[in-house]
Amino acid sequence: MGFTLAEVLITLGIIGVIAAMTMPLIIQNIRGKILHTQLKKAYSTISQATQQLINDTQQIPNPQNYPNPEIDFLQPLAKYFNGGIYCSKTECSELFDKIITTYKNYPKNTLFSGTGSIENCLDDGFITTNDSMLIAFDRGTCKSDRFLFTIDVNGVNKAPNALGHDFFVFEVDPETGAIIPSGGNNSKYTDETCRVNGPLFDNEGVGCTAKALLDNNYFNHLP
Questions:
Q1: What does the alpha-carbon distance between residue 16 and residue 150 come to, in Å, rounded to a whole number?
Q2: What's the per-residue H, E or C state across the chain?
Q3: Do 53 and 84 meet the contact criterion of CB atoms below 8 Å apart?
């Protein structure tokens, strides 16, 4: 028994509706897995590079040991990345301007500049890598006892360019040199938020890193 043209068209229509409903979710899940993998790679890469520098210098990275860290710490650190290139804020002024004028907080409802902004944590030099990862450095301005890395895991030219989405904060433990995901154990940002509701600030999302690393469903529910 064959199908009539009307029956075929109805069936194709139903398939089309189902596909239209499910494809965005499938695409979101794929993107989420990619971002999760890139975040884990960034964590591993920055941890290994920092530890290699510690092994070679026998010096724990903190503001006390490195009074001129852009030159004495960050620039030497770049060589431990595959194709890592260091540049100062002045040398990469266009890059810095792009970050503070286009990147957004976790719920993506505001830019970085303004009250409580993370802008001041991103202006002490950068490292770029061959795989497009961008590392912004803070010499102790935002947390006086430690260095911070804020990493765009997929580079400035790939969306969403937002805190807690593809832009994540890591801290350097001033006692051991270990890399601490913000919002996790021993983090200075433990009490910072990773929210989409409530009294939101420009730095919303700085405490998302540990959660993004540990929660396999984190990237499936981004705002």
A1: 42
A2: CCCCHHHHHHHHHHHHHHHHHHHHHHHHHHHHHHHHHHHHHHHHHHHHHHHHHHHHHCCCCCCCCCCCHHHHHHHHHHHHCCCCEEECCCCCHHHHHHHHHHCECCCCCCECCCCCCCHHHCCCCEEECCCCCEEEEECCCCCCCCCEEEEECCCCCCCCCEECCCEEEEEECCCCCCEEECCCCCCCCCCCCCCCCCCCCCCCCCCCHHHHHHCCCHHHHCC
A3: no
pLDDT of residue 114: 63
Query: How many Cβ atoms from other residues are within 10 Å of residue 99's Cβ?
Result: 24
Q: Distance (Å, rounded) from C-alpha 98 to C-alpha 67?
A: 28
What is the per-residue pLDDT across 17-67, written as a single tens digit (0 to 9) for each? 655 555 555 556 678 899 999 999 999 999 999 999 999 999 999 999 999
CB 111 within 8 A of CB 99: no
**Contact yes or no for 100/122 (Cβ under 8 A):** yes
